[in-house]
């Protein structure tokens, strides 16, 4: 299901944010061996809402804060986010959510 007009940057982030679809999110997740669950989608939707409001992809600390605020203390922990998006949760989740790479994330 490769869309020939889909443009990604050299790190695999979507360049045209309006190209994003849930199907694309599943495809991007599959490429990094993540099977999207309701828990993943909860974070993806939260991230997309965050981006709509602040026009920036959150790094780890603001992401944890936003998750805590919206989804509660249990989920608002970096350990929880690491189980869903191993390595760098802000970078990986932003990529799957079709958002730019978070600033301050190497």
UniProtKB/TrEMBL annotation:
Gene3D superfamilies: 3.30.1420.10, DsrC-like protein, C-terminal domain. Belongs to the dsrC/tusE family. Keywords: Cytoplasm, Transferase. Coiled coil: none annotated. This is Sulfurtransferase. It is an enzyme of class 2 (transferase). SUPFAM superfamilies: DsrC, the gamma subunit of dissimilatory sulfite reductase. Its EC number is 2.8.1.-. Its main location: cytoplasm. It is found in: Cytoplasm. Part of a sulfur-relay system. The keyword Cytoplasm applies. InterPro entries: DsrC-like_C, DsrC-like_dom_sf, DsrC-like_N, DsrC/TusE. The lineage of its organism: Bacteria, Pseudomonadati, Pseudomonadota, Gammaproteobacteria, Oceanospirillales. It comes from the Bacteria. NCBIfam families: dsrC_tusE_dsvC (TIGR03342). The keyword Transferase applies. Pfam families: DsrC.
């Amino acid at each position: 299901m490769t869309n020939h007009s889909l443009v990604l940057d050299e790190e695999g982030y979507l360049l045209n944010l309006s190209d994003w679809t849930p199907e694309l999110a599943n495809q991007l997740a599959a490429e990094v061996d993540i099977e999207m669950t309701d828990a993943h989608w909860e974070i993806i939707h939260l991230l997309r809402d965050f981006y709509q409001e602040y026009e920036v992809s959150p790094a780890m600390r603001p992401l944890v804060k936003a998750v805590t605020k919206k989804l509660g203390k249990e989920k608002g922990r970096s350990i929880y986010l690491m189980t869903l998006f191993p390595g760098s949760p802000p970078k990986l989740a932003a990529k799957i959510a079709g958002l730019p790479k978070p600033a301050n994330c190497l």
